User: What shape does this take?
Amino acid sequence: LTMTSEHLFRTVLEMQPRDGASGGAAGMTKEEKVKGLLDEITERLPEEFNIQEMLGRTEDRSPYTVVAFQECERMNTLTSEMKRSLKELDLGLKGELTISNEMEATMNALFLD
Assistant: This one.
């Protein structure tokens, strides 16, 4: 039942018009809307954690501290991948790269919100 409803909603979203007339973005093309969102997300991404500096300033090596450092490393990996994929999509929108299936999926996800 969950898979069926997910498939149904995905189909409905795919059937929506993908020009600027939908979603209150009058006059904006799909690429313009995605570029705006892309720029906004890129601006809001935090800087990576400096793990070495944090390790040097931390005296306590409790399990909680170790977990916190592991989460910082994971967050660095996540933000790095987000920056990479957004930069790649930006280059694709500018015409400097061929848009791949992954970039198309990212663009559709940003467009459909």
